[in-house]
Each structure stands twice: as structure tokens, then as C-alpha cells.
Amino acid sequence: MNELEDPSVVSLESFSLFPSKVTKSDYEFGKTLGAGSFGVVREATKKSNNEEVAIKILLKKALEGNQVQLQMLYDELTILKKLHHPNIVEFKNWFETDDKIYIVTQLATGGELFDRIIKKGRFSEDDAVKILIQILSAVEYIHSRDIVHRDLKPENLLYLTEKEDSELVIADFGIAKELKKGEQLIFKAAGSLGYVAPEVLTVDGHGKPCDIWSIGVITYTLLSGYAAFVAETVEGFLDECTSGDYPVKFHKPYWDNISDDAKNFILKALDLNPQKRPTATELLDDPWITSKVCRNADLLPSFKERFDARKKFRDAVEIVKLNNRIRKLRQLYCLGSESDSDLRSNSAVNISNDTLEADLDEKLKLCAISNQDRTLTEQEKLKKSVLTQNAFAQIVKAATKNKQKIYDYRTSHPATPVDNSKENVID
């Protein structure tokens, strides 16, 4: 049997369903790229052909008895084995030792999407459209195979190489789900606050349209350089996206030079009613995507002003989080000499939590959006959001209330396109 056949109980022994001929000795391991509650991700080179790859290393002791995480791991392996698309990170192989599981994927060395934009000499709407075509093509592909990513965000959009014409790929299918049929709904909440769709926060279930919402949020930040939503709580997020005529505001002066077609594209993707949200295929035919009009005005100076300092701060936070996670893994799971080499932190950068906190206020001065609508209270929200954005368990508690809030908004705010003759649209 080569594919997982939906076992009712997932166990570590069941990984024999994914046979592999490679072993750990076939790879030379490099630096640590990330860490989580169950293991780390490291760069590696396959010795036989010098191919650079990324390897997720999962600790069996951490996974043992955790049925939810085991099922997610099986889902990820099953999904990755089925996907073959130029804009999706490629699954290579998997292997195991007595105490670890290793998942090998394509290594993207060209950096995250927004890092790449910061390095460019200029960036326009036309450049943004080229990026969106790649993202939409990948999402159209996975949706056609009844797979929902559920965690589309800038950090999971990577360039394969540093070449100018490098492909952009979607990575991290760790919480992706394969639907038994196209319209099946998922009722367990998952995602990243700030990019997750509102229906994920209700009791009604969510499906493919949740990825479209995330694309709308990504497009908003891609064109403006700042986040569409900054709340660090579910209630705060729902207040943000239901408090006005539209889920997002196009603040002056940052959106003045951006086309109405682009704004309408965003509003279509951010329709609070998932059933009215366009599909990836429909968005590929959207006027903003298909237009032949040249939209070459340079957006990069203002983008960098608002995004660059915030990105540097986020990177500092991630370094602290990575080292803390690795330290915790070592404390919880004593795995002998092999763990010393696999659970390795990048100690070249050693930043303490105290140092990070002391430097936080200065960083906020640099990365806060300068429009007058941003108050000191909102900056404090941003501070908390950066540090707690992955704390997602809270979303189930307010499910019934959230459902009613979104329903009330839908009934009182029918979706309409941007019309610059209405002063309250461009706020």
C-alpha cells in the first residue's frame, strides 16, 4: 500500500505506509531554518547529487499519543505526495530513525516574497499582478484536487532561487486538508490570525473560500506595505472587519495611486460571505489581472517605509522564538547524542527576550503606520500581535457570538465595488 487510506487511528508505526529507500546518512545537514513544538527544520544537501533540500525533523517522543498532530502529519505527507506544480514546494522523500521522522522537501533559497520586494529597485501594480498570477495558479491547482491550504500568508510564499525569473512557491502544508468532496466543510479551526478568514472563527465550517480570503489579505499588504488587520484577538479582528462599510479601509494617501481595479480585486476576495467569494479561477479572469493597461507607478518607496522596519523586528522575534523552542525540545525530550546534532540552534545570533522587549518601543516608532488613524492603543495592539499571533486556541470559545456578528454584517452591508465618488470608501 503506497497511500494512506484514512486510518481511524493513526500511529507512528503506520508510517510504513510511506516506504522510503533513503536514510539519514544520504544527507549532509546544515543550519536550522525553524523550530516548533515537535521538531525543527534544517537545510541539508543530498550527497549523491549535491541537491539542496529542506528537512523537517520530528521527534517521535513528542508525537507519541498526540492523535491530532499525528493526523496532521499524515495529512501533510499524503497531500505533498500528490502535488506537482511549479508554484508549490515539491515533496522529495521521507525516512526515519528510531527516534525521529524526517520529511524532505524542495529548498527555496530565494527568500520570502516581501523580502524580495524590499530588495528590488522598484515595484509596481504590474509586478504585483505577476505575483498574484503565480499564487492564484497554485491555489487553483490545489482546489481542483479538493485540497485547502488554510495557512496562506507572506511567510509561506518563497522564491526558489535568487534569480530574477525564479518561480514563487507556496510552502508549509502542515495544516492543509484534503476534502472528501469539493464542497465539504472543515469544522476544526486553524490558521494564522491576521490572514485567517472570518468563517474559520464560527461554527458553520470552512472550505476552499478561506484560501481566497487569505489571498485578499496578502494582496492588500503587497500593495500597501502594511497589514490589513492588526488585532491580536479574535474579537478584535471581527470588530476590525465588520465595523465599516467594507472589511478593510484604503487609507489616504497610501492608496491614492493604486487603481480601483486593484481595490475591487481585494474587496471581492474579502467578501465576508464565503459563498459569494470568487474562486481562484474566477480571480485569474478578474479585470485587474487580465488588464493590458500599464500600471507601472513605483510603489516601492512607500512600501519600504512601512514594511522594512516591521520586518526587521519580526525577524528578531523569530530568532528568539526559534532558540527558545529548541531549548524547550531539549529539556522535554532527552534523546541522547543524536539529538545534540539534530536539535541545533543558530547560536551566531544570541538575542535574549529581555533585550528584545527593551528594544521593542523603539522598533514600534519605526514600523508603525504613519497615517493618523493609527492610535497609540493600536500600536500597543501591534506589539502584542507580533508576540502572540500564533496563539490560536481562543477562536473556538467565541464561536456562536462570532457567527452572529458576521451574519449581522452581511445582511446590513451588501457587497458593492469601489466607487471613488463615495467619500467614505477611501478612508
From TrEMBL:
UniProt xrefs under SUPFAM superfamilies: Protein kinase-like (PK-like)
Gene Ontology biological-process annotations: signal transduction
Binding annotation for ATP: 56
Keywords of this entry: ATP-binding, Calmodulin-binding, Kinase, Nucleotide-binding, Phosphoprotein, Serine/threonine-protein kinase, Transferase
Organism this protein belongs to: Naumovozyma castellii (Yeast)
Coiled coil: none
Reaction(s) the record says it catalyses: L-threonyl-[protein] + ATP = O-phospho-L-threonyl-[protein] + ADP + H(+); L-seryl-[protein] + ATP = O-phospho-L-seryl-[protein] + ADP + H(+)
Name listed for the protein in its UniProt record: calcium/calmodulin-dependent protein kinase
A Pfam family assignment: Pkinase
Family to which this protein belongs: Belongs to the protein kinase superfamily. CAMK Ser/Thr protein kinase family. CaMK subfamily.
Domain Protein kinase residue range list: 27-289
GO molecular function, one term: ATP binding
EC number: 2.7.11.17
GO CC field: cytoplasm
